[in-house]
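Hi all, long-time lurker, first post. I run a small reading group and we've been trying to get comfortable going from sequence to structure in the token notation. Rather than ask abstract questions, I figured I'd post a concrete chain and ask someone more experienced to write out its structure so we can walk through it together at our next meeting. Sequence below, copied exactly:
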Amino acid sequence: MKCQKCSKAATVHLTDIIDGKKRVRHLCQECAEEQQLVQKQELNLPNILQSLLSQHLSRNSEELSRLTCPACGIKYMEFRNRRRLGCPNDYQVFRLGLEPLLERIHRSTRHVGKVPRQARSAAELAEIVQLRQQLRHAVETEAYEEAARIRDLLREKEATDESG
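-- Answer (accepted) --
Happy to help. Here is the structure in token form:
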């Protein structure tokens, strides 16, 4: 479509409804700027994407899209695009957006660490420590039969833990 003022390609299309009558104008960028219908702007793709996304996402996303970390300066939408946080402070600043994400990925929002499959429970470790103390006491008091019994019990406990 051509501009109604000059013969250049029309890039601005305006529709006005005045007194129930529809009026459509097709103008090139220069003619639209000349008539002060649009302002000259540089194309800012991140801002355009951010505004489009915020129109289609929830109210929380709109709030998140405005957040910026005071420590490192990263914006929430920048984090979403790069998929990397800028600093440890971002976990607090972007908490509203990170919690659902962490829940979906890790099925939890709290990191508890990893435990080896064959690890002993706290109760088992406490029992082994207690048996070692009893063994030391039995040896110190020269109760060798008791010490032998505790030693065998310790070996049995430690063998079952290693093979389990």
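A couple of things your group might point at:
Helices lie at 29-34, 45-56, 59-65, 76-82, 90-93, 95-106, 122-140, 144-163.
The CA atoms of residues 54 and 63 lie 9 Å apart.
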